[in-house]
Design goal:
It catalyses: a 1,2-diacyl-sn-glycero-3-phospho-(1'-sn-glycero-3'-phosphate) + H2O = a 1,2-diacyl-sn-glycero-3-phospho-(1'-sn-glycerol) + phosphate. This protein is mainly α and about 160 residues long. The protein has one domain (about 5-164). The chain is about 75% helix and about 0% strand. It has six helices and no strands. Helix 3 (about 75-95) packs parallel to helix 6. The longest helix has about 45 residues, at about 20-65. The N and C termini lie far apart (about 50 Å). The model has no long low-confidence stretch (mean pLDDT about 95).
Length: about 160
């Protein structure tokens, strides 16, 4: 297996069936936690940029070999999207000095909102998905991650400002 395929499929997790994108998103959660613990939200943010750029290159290489412009086994895009959705949780935990485990509702909301937008592909997510190239494969999940991050922020604000 080529290194680009190992990276694009997150070590083969993308070959798990059914719902390879969900498996990739689930695998991204402990990686986000590890990045947060190792270097805080800024390391997670930098990792989003680095993995996005490397993901475009790996996806381009993998799709050139398979002939499929958006193969289901490519899940590195889900990793970046989930990490973006998780950023408000990471920044929130760092801001108040709380443990990430204490903010578990944020983890759950980030995961569910990201999966919703990644599967539904509303508006700009669908536009990026229709690009039919490696950049589009990565970009649609970035946009879905940003939309999910907004949902995480809004629900956290509602929870802390209205419910508490």
């Amino acid at each position: 297996m080529k290194i680009s395929t190992v990276f694009a499929t997150l070590g083969g997790i993308g070959y798990l069936k059914p719902a390879s994108g969900t498996w990739g998103s689930l695998a991204a959660l402990p990686l986000a936690w590890a990045l947060h613990v190792a270097g805080g939200p800024m390391l997670l943010l930098l990792a989003c940029f680095a993995v996005f750029l490397a993901g475009v290159v790996a996806t381009e290489s993998h799709t050139a070999r398979t002939g499929d412009h958006d193969p289901s086994e490519v899940v590195i895009d889900e990793v970046v999207g989930l990490w973006i959705a998780f950023l408000p949780v990471s920044f929130g935990a760092a801001h108040v000095g709380a443990s990430l485990t204490a903010l578990y509702p944020g983890w759950i909301m980030a995961f569910l909102a990201f999966r919703l937008f990644d599967i539904w592909k509303p508006g700009p997510v669908g536009w990026a998905d229709r690009r039919s190239d490696a950049f589009g494969v990565m970009l649609d999940d970035v946009i879905a991650g940003v939309m999910a991050a907004v949902v995480v922020i809004v629900t956290a604000a509602f929870s802390h400002l209205v419910l508490m």
